[in-house]
Design brief:
The protein contains 7 helices and no strands. By secondary structure, the protein is mostly helical.
Amino acid sequence: MQEHRPVHAPFPGLGLRSLKTALATTLTALLYVFLPGRNPTFACIGAIFGLGFDMEDSRRNGGNRFFGTIIGGFIGLGLYWLEHVLFPEGCYLLRLPLVFVGVIILVTLCVLFRWPGGVQPGGVVLCIILFNTPAHHVEYALNRMLDTGIGVVIALAVNYLLPRARLERWLRLSSSEDPV
């Protein structure tokens, strides 16, 4: 196994992965220029979460974010629907046991599908839908799932097209050089 020797820039913590994360986020935001009326926030978050050290890490990180968002989104939609069937105007106190049950279902599904890293992002989406969803909750949830997927796909593409070895060659950097 090859030892990881980071190539450092003049700023502490800024290396090739940082540059690729910034590039993936910027490309994601750029795409949304061509999608009028759409907000790139969740797609950019997907890009940031989705970019790992290498492709395997990116697939794991991006998969966690995307899978968790999908599962949490559908659970949140179901629980939101249940609340509004019982209380058309909504009932905050009902949301307390619903969020409890929702998190239990989320954890169970993530473990069942062997994707435990999806619990955190899924829980975020679940809570957003239950406690902060606009009137068009179905459209909101589906858009969050789509946006997250777009960001993750762009992060994967950046990491695939710009692997560390290629960037080092292009930038004429060597992992054996002393940090600047």
